[in-house]
Design brief:
Hydantoin permease, single chain, 432 residues, 79% helix, mainly alpha, binds 4-fluoro-L-phenylalanine
């Protein structure tokens, strides 16, 4: 459940609907499903498998598994790479999570009622223009994350996740039921499910592939650490399939909650990242019960982000406590504090640092590109290559313990050939 909480995040509820909207809807959704099943899932299984085989913090797990297979201990660097990726990713992820937290209250207060669409858009622009408000909400979000992780695995993570993940699905279902009662429902369904490949481009394929990795939380050491915490008796294959299934389900449900509202209120589906912060509030302002459903929606976003942020702090905390023998609360405050600090740079990039650019990119754009264009693809590639080529066949077969040999062979084929090739295609095309 924790891994599902990690996978289901802003990527599902904030990003998936707008990338689907920008890339033509149904055709994109279909290709995305293929990417999750054939490329994301095998790599997810590989990462959980490596974590459980290692049984320690990501850095030491990787070293241990590599040595067991007669390889260099330096593969520990792959664990470290994941931790670094989580670090930078969470630094700006938390800023966006903070927007969601702010918008719970903004919506509940009725601020979107009886004002024009233009004014609603301005409200968000004003919010982004204020470094103090952004810092406040970024801090609130990091404080919640730090508090949960510092309480430890059982009292912190488990207890929180047990409420968070079911709560998240419950809210999603309530919102979908609401959407089903709006006149735009069928149009939303058609938009999500009717594939129209005439609008589909190679670029859209790459977006689908990149998003498949991101949404499953691979290559950030999160799955390495959760793998390490996984019982020996659990099947890695069925655990991974469940995670991928629930992750995909939540993205589709988010689409089903959002697009009917978009169409009912005559908004456009392809506005990009501001879809949920600028467009949806227009609908929330106009619909009956909009303050309630609107705040519920942003609460959902916050829950989703929290399950993810916990899983990004945990790998580094596990490593620090294991390596330097310092207490968990200290390690968590240190990790979380540093992530917070790096995040401040990102939030300033929406206002006073917006035009401070290096090679045309501001701070946020640099960190985002570092993570999405370099660290995540590199991590996914190395995980697949290690699991497929460097780890002995016996070790992976033993750890995955699949009842069916064919299934194991298919997994191995996908991580050896398909996944590395797919990542290379993404990277090469991005560099062009
Ligand atoms: N899977 C998360 C999402 O879809 O929002 C993003 C994510 C969370 C990536 C945690 C990596 C991670 F470790």
């Amino acid at each position: 459940m924790a891994a599902t909480g990690s996978a289901v995040g802003l990527g599902n509820i904030w990003k998936f609907p707008y990338v689907a909207g920008e890339n033509g809807g149904g055709a994109f959704v279909l290709v995305y499903l293929g990417c999750v099943a054939l490329i994301g899932l095998p790599v997810l299984m590989a990462e959980i498998m490596l974590g459980r085989r290692g049984g320690r913090s990501p850095v030491n797990s990787m070293a241990r598994v590599a040595v067991e297979s007669g390889r260099s201990e330096r593969w520990f660097l792959l664990g470290l790479l994941g931790i670094i990726t989580s670090f930078f990713l969470l630094s700006f992820y938390s800023v966006i999570a903070g927007w969601s937290a702010a918008y719970i209250f903004q919506t509940a207060s009725g601020a979107f009622r009886d004002i024009s669409a233009l004014q609603i858009v301005e409200l968000f622009d004003d919010f982004l223009a204020s470094p103090w408000r952004l810092t406040f909400w970024h801090s609130v979000f990091m404080l919640i994350t730090i508090t949960v992780v510092s309480f430890g695995l059982h009292r912190g993570l488990e207890r929180t996740i047990r409420v968070l993940v079911p709560g998240l699905f419950l809210i999603l279902i309530i919102l979908v039921l609401y959407s089903a009662s709006t006149p735009g429902f069928m149009e939303g369904v058609r938009f999500l499910f009717k594939p129209d490949f005439s609008e589909f481009s190679g670029q859209a394929f790459l977006v689908a592939l990149g998003h498949a990795f991101f949404t499953l939380s691979v290559a950030t050491a999160s799955m390495l650490i959760y793998g390490a915490y996984l019982q020996r008796s659990a099947s890695i294959a069925s655990t991974s399939v469940t995670i991928a299934f629930l992750d995909t389900l939540s993205a589709i449900l988010a689409g089903l909650a959002i697009f009917p509202i978009v169409f009912t209120y005559a908004l456009v589906p392809d506005v990009g990242p501001t879809l949920v912060f600028k467009s949806l509030p227009i609908a929330f302002g106009a619909m009956p019960g909009g303050s309630f459903f609107g705040s519920l929606f942003f609460l959902l976003l916050l829950f989703a982000a929290l399950g993810s942020s916990i899983s990004m702090v945990e790998p580094m905390v596990a490593w620090i406590t294991e390596r330097w023998k310092i207490s968990r609360p200290k390690a968590t405050w240190l990790t979380g504090g540093l992530i917070w600090l790096f995040g401040v740079g990102s939030l300033l990039s929406f206002n006073i640092w917006q035009e401070k650019r290096l090679l045309g990119w501001n701070y946020y754009e640099i960190v985002d590109a570092l993570v999405s264009l370099l660290l995540l693809p590199l991590g996914a590639l190395l995980l697949a290559v290690f699991a497929g080529w460097f780890m002995t066949r016996q070790a992976s077969e033993d750890e995955l313990a699949m009842p069916n040999k064919r299934l194991y062979q298919s997994w191995r084929f996908l991580v050896r050939y398909v996944a590395p090739l797919a990542v290379l295609v993404i990277v090469i095309s991005l560099l062009r």
